[in-house]
Amino acid sequence: MDANELHWAAYERYHRTKRTSPDTVKSYHITLTQLTDFRPGRDLLDLERVDIEEFLIAASSVNASATVHKKFRNLRAFYRWAVDEEMIEKSPMHRIPEPAVTDKPVPVVPEDQIVALLKACSGREFGERRDNAMIRLWCEAGSPRVSEMVGIRLDGLDMRHDKVTLHGKGDKIRVIPFGAKTGQAIQRYLTARAHHKDAKRLDSLWLGMLGGALTTSGAYRLLERRCAQAGIPRIHPHKLRHLAAHTFADEGGSDGDAMSLFGWASPEMPRLYGRSAQVERAHRAARRISQADRY
């Protein structure tokens, strides 16, 4: 095992003690692997400021500003850890300015595509009941991350008060409500689930078509499959989460409530997700005023 593999093993062990989200750990690993490939044969702890700067410059030529910003934060976290562990005296990222993120509204999934998506799984078979319920829950305020969605347990579902408990990043727990149509879809799925071969053996809410609990990769695949059946562009689960945040902001939901519902720790997140809603509200206002029609 070379030096960088040992560094990663130690860093990954640290995150296990912190109970860091697997998706976050994966992001760290990808960035560190890319930096290793950028400076082949070099020990990550021997790199200097110029190496990091050149890596970020190269990344900015092929990645969106938000992606470069994420790589910067991943590297900063790694080198801060190395300093805290006394593996290096000073981070090579010291005084490297944080990359700016272009203030660009994220496109929102059109309503007609959501209608088509739900229609593609409107039947009565087990898979259709499950997928319809999941898609509707993804569209609710507080929309679960993929890992949170597949991690829902039967005892976390409150069908009396129409809410569900989610286990999020860093073992954080939050409860989100859902509407009548989502509740109806979940109830119909529960009826279908009762006849599944693993219904009594497993406490996972979402079960796979062929058995066992639905996995993260299975959740991605089901959405991809339904998009193909609906004849619409592929929709990533995160786009449904963004749609939910957009709709919440567009209906006047506050930043503080959004942070609570969506499990965000930073106030920047509701502002980031709310920009597309702000642009849409501005467009509606402009159409209502129709200034040029006065002349």
Can you offer a commentary on this structure?
With 295 residues, the chain is mainly alpha-helical. It folds into two domains: 3-84, DNA polymerase, domain 1 (Orthogonal Bundle); 111-284, Intergrase catalytic core (hpI Integrase, Chain A). Helix content is 56%, strand content 4%. The protein has twelve helices and three strands. Strands 1-2-3 form a three-stranded antiparallel beta sheet. Helix 1 (3-18) packs antiparallel against helix 2, helix 5 (111-119) packs across helix 9 and helix 6 (126-138) packs antiparallel against helix 8. The radius of gyration is 22 Å and the shape is globular. The N and C termini lie far apart (75 Å).
The CATH topology of the largest domain turns out to be hpI Integrase, Chain A
* Lateral arrangement of strands in the main beta sheet: 1-2-3
Number of helices: 12
CATH superfamily membership of the largest domain:
Intergrase catalytic core
